[in-house]
Structures are given as structure tokens and as C-alpha cells.
Write a structure and sequence with these properties.
Keywords: Signal. It is a single chain. By secondary structure, the protein is α+β, with helices and mostly antiparallel strands. It folds into 2 domains: about 1-135, no CATH class; about 150-255, no CATH class. About 25% of the residues lie in helices and about 20% in strands. It is built from 6 helices and 10 strands, in the order H-H-E-H-E-E-H-E-E-E-H-E-E-H-E-E. The strands form 2 sheets. The chain has a 5-stranded antiparallel beta sheet. A 5-stranded antiparallel beta sheet has the order 6-9-10-8-7, with helices on one face. A hairpin with a 2-residue loop joins strand 2 (about 70-75) and strand 3. Helix 3 packs antiparallel against helix 4 (about 90-105). The protein is globular and about 50 Å long. About 35% of the residues are buried.
């Protein structure tokens, strides 16, 4: 599907004689199939405050390192998914969210790229998508404005802190530089790095899907200890500012029951 959409974008740009990817986005945003969910209520005024929190480069563009940027204010969370890291400037981003708010008002809304599947499929199937939603609907039930350096523990399912310590100790890194790696099989820097030991999966990740720039050392060791000391044998997460290549990202360390097999060569 992603390959098809890439072909679609290139073909359309050629047909329209567009000079840049930005021109292409300007045309496509007019054709967004905006869908509203009246069951999910929010305040459009909160969404406007959330949109204003996006950080841009000096040329008023989003950096091209992130694939998912989320901002929250009041009871509104706005998210831009840009899985192909297409060029995006402030005017296009704000204009796209405005289209959702104009149509959906105080209800949640979604504007996928034309040709993307509709419904609730996860964002990998949508190269470019904008959403507005109320708080509390997320894979990890915590939003981007949750305070840094404040562990958040979840009541279940139970894990063993000793297993988490072993999992954290075995998160793949470059032992010469301390750089976190995707896996021991794929020795390159990535948005997340994780390890599983018995009852616990330990993950360090960026919230915006950009590359991890933080290195394993006193900072990450201290964060992990703070998380485990607070949560003990419960799942939990802790965040810190910086450590992500993207301007809008931060780093989280998350411990939980194992959810999937670790990244390995297939």
C-alpha cells in the first residue's frame, strides 16, 4: 500500500506539473476526506492551543526526522502522522488541522491522505494524516504534556523488577559509543531499542519516531532506576526532555509485560 501511494503521489505531481512536494501537499489537502466522530467530544479552542505548540525550524518547517508528532492542551490532543517524512511547513500543517476543526467543531476528527484506507487502521497505512481527539485514547495512556522525570505506574499486569533490570541491561547498544541500536541483528540507530527478560520488556524510545540520540549511561541508568524504584513490580513509564533527533520529540523508558517478539532478522 505504501509503495502504491508513493507511485500515486509522484504520478499526480507530474500530471499537475507541481514544482515541489510542498506544492503537492497544498493540492492534496483540499481533497482530504475528513471524518468526524461525534461520540468523542473535545473543545476546538483547546485544539487551537495544542496546534500552537508545534516546534519548527527557522524556516517555519517541521524537521523531517519525526513520523508522529503529538501535542496536547486541555482536553484536546492533535497528532500529525507523516510516515514518509514528507516536507511540511507551518502553514500547511495549521491549515490542515483547521479543515478538521471547521468541519468537526467540538468532535474528534481525522483527515487521511486521499487513497489511504479509512476506518481505524493504525497509522502505518496512512503516509500522511492529521487527527484531533480527546485525551486518554492512546497506546500508552499518557499524553505528550505529561511531566518529565515523573514516573507513571500502571496497576497491572504484574512484572518483576529484577527481570526489568536484566532486560534493561541487555538493551542492544554499540558498546564503543553507547548508542542504542534497533537490535543485535540490525546494528543501526533507530527510534526505539528494547529487550525482553522473562516477565518484563524494557523499551527506550522517542515519542515522535525520530532517531534516538541519547546514549546509554548515567542519564538513562538514573532514569531507569527512578522508574523501577517508583513502580517496583508494576508496569510504568518515565520521560525526559531531549534525546530525540526531532525537535518535537522526547525520550521515554517503558517497562511492561512482553507484548511481542524482539526485533530480529526474518
Amino acid at each position: 500500500m505504501v509503495v502504491y501511494q508513493l507511485v500515486f503521489l509522484v504520478t499526480l505531481s507530474l500530471l499537475l506539473g507541481l514544482a515541489s512536494a510542498q506544492d503537492l501537499q497544498t493540492v492534496l489537502q483540499k481533497a482530504y476526506d475528513i471524518k468526524c466522530d461525534s461520540k468523542q467530544k473535545l473543545k476546538a479552542s483547546d485544539c487551537l492551543r495544542a496546534i500552537a505548540k508545534f516546534k519548527y525550524t527557522s524556516s517555519k518547517e517541521l524537521d523531517r526526522d519525526a513520523v508522529e508528532i503529538q501535542k496536547a492542551f486541555g482536553n484536546c490532543v492533535v497528532t500529525m502522522y507523516n510516515i514518509n517524512r514528507d516536507p511540511m511547513n507551518q502553514a500547511v500543517l495549521e491549515g490542515s488541522f483547521k479543515k478538521i476543526l471547521d468541519k468537526c467543531k467540538d468532535s474528534a476528527g481525522s483527515a487521511p491522505l486521499p487513497g489511504s484506507p479509512d476506518g481505524n487502521a493504525y497509522y502505518q497505512h496512512r503516509p500522511l494524516r492529521f487527527t484531533t481527539r480527546p485525551r486518554g485514547i492512546h497506546i500508552i495512556p499518557v499524553e505528550e504534556d505529561y511531566p518529565n522525570l515523573k514516573p507513571l505506574c500502571f496497576p497491572s499486569p504484574k512484572i518483576l523488577s529484577s527481570d526489568c533490570q536484566n532486560a534493561y541491561n541487555n538493551i542492544p547498544i554499540n558498546h564503543q559509543t553507547g548508542t542504542f541500536l534497533w537490535s543485535n541483528d540490525y546494528a543501526y540507530v533507530a527510534p526505539l531499542s528494547e529487550s525482553i527478560n522473562k516477565t518484563c520488556q524494557a523499551t527506550i524510545y522517542t515519542t515522535d519516531g525520530s532517531t534516538l540520540t541519547i546514549k546509554k549511561g548515567k542519564t538513562t541508568d538514573g532514569l531507569f532506576k527512578q522508574l523501577i524504584d517508583a513502580c517496583k513490580d508494576k508496569p510504568g513509564v518515565i520521560f525526559t526532555s531531549g534525546g530525540a533527533k526531532g525537535l518535537n520529540g522526547r525520550v521515554g523508558i517503558y517497562v511492561q509485560r512482553p507484548q511481542h517478539r524482539q526485533n530480529k532478522k526474518q
